[in-house]
């Protein structure tokens, strides 16, 4: 492998793989289920909302919008936990896709999905705790600043001490800004770093800091390029998928059967409404198979009701597949970016290190299999 930007350009093609899209699909499906359950709880504990009302308003995926929906703090907390769990599940999914990408780059085309998922779960601690650790550090610094502000209210002594410490306070504030930047970078790189050779939380944090410090402009520009690839890939794949759905709708209704029109209409009804944000509505209208507000439910018999439910569920799966390609492109891009930047900054061949690690692991597994358990073959005779 030649380590250069040319490898990063390959991200959309590398990502177009059934394995990677399937892993991204599973991550989206599990993440959305966890998020939706907690968000339903956040709504339903309020007296003015019931599960039935939440369903009628949002369908499967409720999205409370600040300023439009007025939640108490405990509902926002539950919703925030759902968002955090969704993000962490996606990080595990991206880590698994990165592992598959590394294995394919070093020639292992038969690396299995379950092996990648097990590996990502094994490295979950290093992957997830990296941004959490940074968030804790940021919170501690902010708390210290607030305590200093409170100390400054002490008559005479407080203002003098704060004035003398002002330079240190300003430098600490600048350091917090730096930590915030690294915090966001950790969400980009940590899954791919954790999917490489053996890393603990400290190693993942160190790699985030060193990559940002030593390859700043390459990292920024290449991340922008990968973001464009993700947007373009989802746009094109979504547009083609929408046309395919419209073709399927036309074929099934070609003989003028009104039953399919009702099923199709009610299948679209199951899709969640788009948040009332102008650019989101404009984008969705281009690639989504439904209108912004969706159609009204029409009465059907029980067989058509089952069919409508299956169509609605199938539309969600198709949407997850399209978004899964975007996540796969993002994960493959982060893997390629990290592999190339590690070569630039440390002159290390990441793929070779992964291969050596795999050989060591295979040797350890063989050694464990060959070990003869103690007392094997010993027959214990009872005096009775």
Automatic annotation (TrEMBL):
<feature type="transmembrane region" description="Helical">
    <location>
        <begin position="315"/>
        <end position="342"/>
    </location>
</feature>
<protein>
    <submittedName>
        <fullName>Uncharacterized protein</fullName>
    </submittedName>
</protein>
<feature type="region of interest" description="Disordered">
    <location>
        <begin position="355"/>
        <end position="384"/>
    </location>
</feature>
<feature type="transmembrane region" description="Helical">
    <location>
        <begin position="21"/>
        <end position="46"/>
    </location>
</feature>
<feature type="transmembrane region" description="Helical">
    <location>
        <begin position="128"/>
        <end position="150"/>
    </location>
</feature>
<feature type="compositionally biased region" description="Basic and acidic residues">
    <location>
        <begin position="360"/>
        <end position="372"/>
    </location>
</feature>
<keyword id="KW-0472">Membrane</keyword>
<keyword id="KW-1133">Transmembrane helix</keyword>
<feature type="transmembrane region" description="Helical">
    <location>
        <begin position="76"/>
        <end position="97"/>
    </location>
</feature>
<feature type="transmembrane region" description="Helical">
    <location>
        <begin position="219"/>
        <end position="240"/>
    </location>
</feature>
<feature type="transmembrane region" description="Helical">
    <location>
        <begin position="156"/>
        <end position="189"/>
    </location>
</feature>
<keyword id="KW-0812">Transmembrane</keyword>
